[in-house]
Amino acid sequence: MAGGLNLYGYAGSDPINSSDPFGLCPYGQAKPDEDVSNCPKDALGNGMRLLKSEGGAKGAATIHTIAAHHVSFDLESGKALTKACGTRAHGCTQGSKITLDATADAEDMAVRVTHEATHVRMGYATAYSVQEPIAWGNALDVYSRLRGKNGRSAFYEPYFQWRTRDPVGFKRAVCRSSGGGKGC
Q1: How many domains does the chain have?
Q2: pTM of the predicted structure, to 2 decimals
């Protein structure tokens, strides 16, 4: 193994601020379960705890998907995020690996994780134009449960308001923007 073993992988390579003595955090572990109490104390780990405590059924489904599919996460920002996910993306999914914007706070992380975990759950058999409105719907359902706890998300609030005013138009626009065309 080039570079040697990472003896602190159980704690997200940060043993000072994080711990996972049994390797059971839902992500990045050999035997994940759905207990988020051992997740690192960073935006992603705190987002997972928000999903568990306040995310309702969609939050629970997200955590279950992450554990069941052995999802791993890459947190990137700037050019590295653009290279991994494209110019306008705040996250993306490739198989069971989710790449997210490292600058997101815990609430935004919880919403983004929900969106991308929907893609993991649905897999490649379902067209992206079908998946994307469902992923947005799940993410905004979680956002509606979290919004206002620490202020409102500058990114998600306009989409939340649009979907509240015009749910059919919102779904159609998301479908079309993801390549659905006239079938939306």
Answers
A1: 1
A2: 0.82
